[in-house]
C-alpha cells in the first residue's frame, strides 16, 4: 500500500517538472508590476487658490492662469514622490497644527491626481514653522494631503530630496503676489 502511494506521489512530482507539461499561458496571467505613478496629464486650466498664513493670519493670493497651471504641475510632481510618514496625528494634534499656522495652503479644482481612477488631491498644506516645517536645512519636502473630500490625512507626507519643488511653488507664489 505504501509503495503504491509513494509511486503515485513520485510520478506526479516527476510529471510536474517535465518540460512537456510547461503551460506558457500561466505566465500571461501573472500580475504585472504596477507602472510607476506618473501624472496622467499636465494640468491645464486648473483652478488653484493659494492662502499664505503668517501666525494664523491668512492672506489669499489671486493667481493668474499661467501660475495656477505651473503650480498644479509642480504639486502633481510632489504628490507623485510623496510617501506618508508612519505616524498618525490625532484630532488634537491636527488642530494644534492649524493654530498660529505659518505656511501655504493650496486648493485644487478639480482635484489633481496621478491615476485616472483615483479620487485626487483637493488640498495641500506646507508648514513653514513647527515640527513638520519645510526649512532650508532639509532636502525633503514635507506636506499634508487632503483628498477630494477635503479632509486632511492625519499623517504628514515626505517627498525625499524634493525641497526644490516646494521652493519653486514658494517662488511662484511670491511672483504672483506682485
- In percent terms, what proportion of residues is strand? 15-25%
Q: What is the N-to-C order of secondary-structure elements (H for helix, E for strand)?
A: HHEEHEHEEEEH
What's the end-to-end separation, in Å?
Answer: 92 Å
Shape: globular
User: What is the residue-mean pLDDT, rounded to a whole number?
Assistant: 79
Helix percentage range: 25-40%
- Unreliable stretches (pLDDT < 50, length at least 5) are 1-8, 10-42
Q: What is the number of helices?
A: 5
Gyration radius from CA atoms, angstroms: 25 Å
The biggest beta sheet is recorded as: 7 strands, antiparallel
Q: How many individual domains? A: 1
Going across the major beta sheet, what is the strand order? Answer: 2-1-4-5-6-7-3
The count of β-strands is 7
Structural class by SSE content: alpha+beta
Could you name the key traits of this structure?
seven-stranded antiparallel beta sheet; alpha+beta; 178 residues; disordered N terminus; 7 strands
How would you portray this structure in words?
With 178 residues, this protein is α+β, with helices and mostly antiparallel strands. It has one domain. Helices cover 33% and strands 24% of the residues. The protein has 5 helices and 7 strands. It has a 7-stranded antiparallel sheet, covered by helices on one side. A hairpin with a 2-residue loop joins strand 1 and strand 2. The radius of gyration is 25 Å and the shape is globular. The N terminus is likely disordered.
